[in-house]
Design goal:
- The chain has 150 residues and is an all-alpha fold.
- It has one domain.
- Helices cover 51% and strands 3% of the residues.
- A two-stranded antiparallel sheet has the order 1-2.
- A hairpin with an 8-residue loop joins strand 1 and strand 2.
Length: 150
């Protein structure tokens, strides 16, 4: 409601100011809540992609050991296991880490793994299907698969 001369009354100005302030406060709360969730989702996606890459490297390492009759202490080179991977090359960590292949009987590692996030960029019994497979294999056949000592 405007005054007869076309100017806003003082009450209308107060209502517009309060409405604008409420909008800014609500928008601020949405931003404060949403941004950490987006960051967490992005980091979680990267960690899951890295763990999947580590699984692929571990599978390729096990195939290399089986085909070449290697023992648990042998260490394959990246070129030797690359032929067992998609496009004949090692996958790349989405956050720029480097993969350490290691011996046949140990899980590959990513240089980004930290103790602050114990399940982040690391293969461990909770996210490694190969560990579960080795346990089931030994239960069924009474021995570990070739190339595994754990």
């Amino acid at each position: 409601m405007s005054a007869p001369d076309g100017k806003s009354s003082f009450a209308e100005k107060i209502v517009k100011c309060v409405t604008t302030c409420l909008f800014v406060v609500v928008f601020g709360f949405v931003v404060v809540i949403a941004i950490p969730d987006f960051m967490r989702a992005r980091l979680s996606k990267s960690a899951n992609a890295c763990i999947n890459n580590l699984r692929q490297i571990d599978g390729a390492k096990q195939e290399w050991a089986l085909e070449n009759r290697k023992g648990s202490n042998d260490i394959p080179s990246s070129a030797e296991i690359a032929i067992y991977l998609v496009n004949n090359r090692l996958p790349v960590c989405p956050l720029g880490g480097t993969y350490i292949i290691g011996r046949v009987d140990e899980d590959p590692k990513c240089s980004i793994s930290t103790s602050a996030w114990p399940n982040d960029h690391v293969l461990n019994p909770t996210n490694n299907w190969w560990t579960d497979f080795k346990g089931a294999y030994s239960t069924l056949f009474g021995r570990r698969p070739l190339g595994s000592s754990r």
